[in-house]
Amino acid sequence: MTTPPATLRRRTFTLGAALATPLLATLLSACGRTEAPAAPTASAPTPAAAPAARIYTVGTDAVYAPFEFQNERGEIQGFDIDLVKAVAQRAGIEVKFVNTPWEGMFNTLAQGDRDILVSAITITPERAQTMDFSAPYFDARQLIAVPAASKVQRFADLKPLRVAVQTGTTGDEVVSQLLGKTNPRLKRFESTPLALQELDAGGVDAVVADNGVIAHYVAHHPGARFKSVEDPSFIPEQYGLVVKKGNAALLAQLNDGLVKLLADGGYAEIHTRWFGAAPTALPGSVPTAAATAPSSTTAASANP
Ligand code: ARG
């Protein structure tokens, strides 16, 4: 069993502690109450004659179901998309989504091509040096996908195996720590679906990626050929919305929208839409009244 390296261990508390505090105070007061027959937050109309100064461009790597993906008609959908739409509505800003490959995504902010990024992006201290994160909006951790018959029981079991990850993700980080950054058995792909395709083709023995995405893949893959394996050594991660470093005004608007969304029940509704249940803990690991319910992320996986 590996001890998480110091660099990884440091990741969690930065914004979770700093930024989430005011947010969570609001949340705590909100989560005690039972939602009345749910205000129609999803279908609430956008403000009619808003001055609409500008439309903010949101970049998203839409190959990460159920967080962001394209449907048959090419429309970008997912938990993250609904979340940003709802946040924008509450913040009184207009947004449009543009599919943006993960690789190079962060550079689009500095170039001014994108104003906001949403892509199940984990808040890390390294990233926070070059971009600004909103308060955390989703709790996640790494999860392992292996063939159903695999003997892998924990992360350390991957050490002698071939493992696929998406380049430059936190999954890449943890597997790099275990196997060594330049190990030829560590196969990097530009998207997580490509990594999973390699698993499907038998080219690798495992994929390590965010739990929501792995659980979704395992649950929806025909023939129950894959299973997911958890490991307690994976440190908790949190997703944040991203803006260009120093764009304090936009960041404040997003955080304001997020606070409102969490407080008015919209967040729970969107979570239920995509994960089949209200969150058991609000972002930042504060347990909710629903904390006794089965974990939302494992609920989606067929046979863990
Ligand atoms: N949460 C992970 C990270 O921040 C993976 C995110 C990948 N998201 C995507 N849409 N491809 O590194």
From TrEMBL:
UniProt keyword Signal present:
yes
Instruction: Report the SUPFAM superfamilies cross-referenced here.
Output: Periplasmic binding protein-like II
GO CC terms: cell envelope; membrane
SMART domains registered for this protein in UniProt = PBPb (SM00062), PBPe (SM00079)
One MF term in the entry's GO annotations? ligand-gated monoatomic ion channel activity
Task: Give the matching Pfam families.
Answer: SBP_bac_3
Where does this protein reside within or beyond the cell?
Answer: Cell envelope
Provide the alphabetized UniProt keywords.
Signal
Family membership noted in the UniProt record: Belongs to the bacterial solute-binding protein 3 family.
Name of the protein: Basic amino acid ABC transporter substrate-binding protein
Its organism's taxonomic lineage begins at: Bacteria, Pseudomonadati, Pseudomonadota, Betaproteobacteria, Burkholderiales
